[in-house]
Amino acid sequence: MKKRNTVLIYGVSSILILISVQIFIIRGVWQQKNELFGIRYSVRSQEALNYIWRELGTGGFDTLQYVLDHYSSNQAIDELSAAEDEKELAEAKKDILDYFTKAANQEQDLSELLSKYFESRHYDKNFKYKIIINNIDIIDDDTIQIYRKDGFDNNDLRGRKQFDYSGVGSNILIRQPHMEGNNFRFRFEYYIDFSDKQRQVWEETSLSLAMAILSILIVVIIFLITYRNLMEERRLSNLKTDFINNMTHELKTPLSTITVAGKTLEMPQIRSDDGKILETAKLIGKQSVHLNQLINMILEISMWERTQFQLDKKKVKIEEIMNDVVDSFKSGGGNNAEIRNKYNFNGAEIDLDVVYFTTLMNNLLSNAVKYSDKKPEIDVEGFTQDNNVCIRVADNGIGINRIDQKHIFDKFYRASTGNIHKFKGLGLGLYYVKKIAEAHGGDVTVSSKPGKGSTFTIYIPLST
Length: 464
Ligand code: ADP
Hints:
By secondary structure, the chain is α+β, with helices and mostly antiparallel strands. It has helices at 2-56, 62-82, 86-106, 110-120, 154-159, 197-266, 268-271, 274-306, 318-331, 354-370, 402-407, 416-419, 429-439; strands at residues 127-139, 143-148, 172-175, 178-180, 184-194, 314-317, 338-344, 349-352, 377-385, 388-395, 443-449, 453-461. The chain is built from 13 helices and 12 strands. Strand 9 (377-385) and strand 10 form a beta hairpin. Helix 1 (2-56) packs across helix 4 (110-120) and helix 9 packs across helix 10. The longest helix is centred in the middle third of the chain and has 70 residues, at 197-266. The chain binds adenosine-5'-diphosphate. Adenosine-5'-diphosphate binds at residues 363, 367-368, 371, 395, 397-400, 408, 413-415, 417-418, 425-431, 454.
């Protein structure tokens, strides 16, 4: 149990570490793709600007230049000079800032030119633009400062990297125009931002993401398979240890009886008593047969593992065989049990290896007697159903819990109560039953309630 937990803990922690590493890698890949996307469109935009300048001779702000020239020489200057006090001056400045902002957004042609260029090159043309104003001066006789972005001074422009788009979210800085007219100076930044940038970046990351998920899945599956195999191996090794313990116990009983009987025969007072000698000899004989049976059973089963076991099938009337098997069981090991039978075979015939079938029935009947804590009552029922002969052996014994029911047909398996040496056995009887039923093309099932009893049902196909 402790080892099992350790394996689980190691396995689960390794998987968690793997998942964290993959998340880390994917985040890195995503960031890289995100940055690459920005750089790609910066470069494309510079190409576009060059192209537009070369081919059209414009920077995309000609209309704006014209509108602002006109506005500042007329309206702006008038408004400023008409201001009579500080308050009116502040209002005039605000109006001018609003006008410049609106004009920069509405009267620039760069967005349309860029969009057309991108479209012609089959790039993504669905971008939004953003204008950030740095500085507005209205120049008359004096320079009147209308707006100056916090922390901005003229050196900023020179100090900036060409494609610096940091600090404005995912926007890409395309241009920092410095416009001058007769009566104004205007500096601003022009950014673009792609609406489906996230989708594109995710698309580009998706291969790495899929590989990461796949590798995690593969590791999880390999871990589960390895864990299951490990548990199965442990279960089998426990079964084998139990088997060796049980077998030693089973073999020791007849052996020690024989040893004691041998010693008894050495005693002078016994040797003079013919009756005692005969009795002891019979005991030795009986125990040797039992010993032989046990050894044969083990040998036979190990033979099956190597070769398909051979059946000597004959067409028989199942009812006759059942009568023979149950009668001889009654007169043998099952004499203290009450065995009731009810057959409804309608003369059904099946192809049967009678010797193996007798072993199968004996195993079921002797288990019904063995695993009982009161006087055993066994109902043996027989009938035909869907081209099968069904034989049901129901007892009033100790029953089998759900978990054990899944394993009782496994080789060497003994239910946990069976391992306390109250009920002797090797865990081979039902394994034998299942093998024989399957070799006849049939099967065996169990239903049971602990404390109430168990019912085993054998199915064997009818002769065709
Ligand atoms: P064995 O009897 O040698 O232990 P079997 O293969 O015949 O081995 O049975 C496997 C296990 O199934 C037994 O250990 C026992 O716990 C359980 N079992 C089998 N038959 C019965 C039954 N009729 N009633 C209760 N438990 C049973």
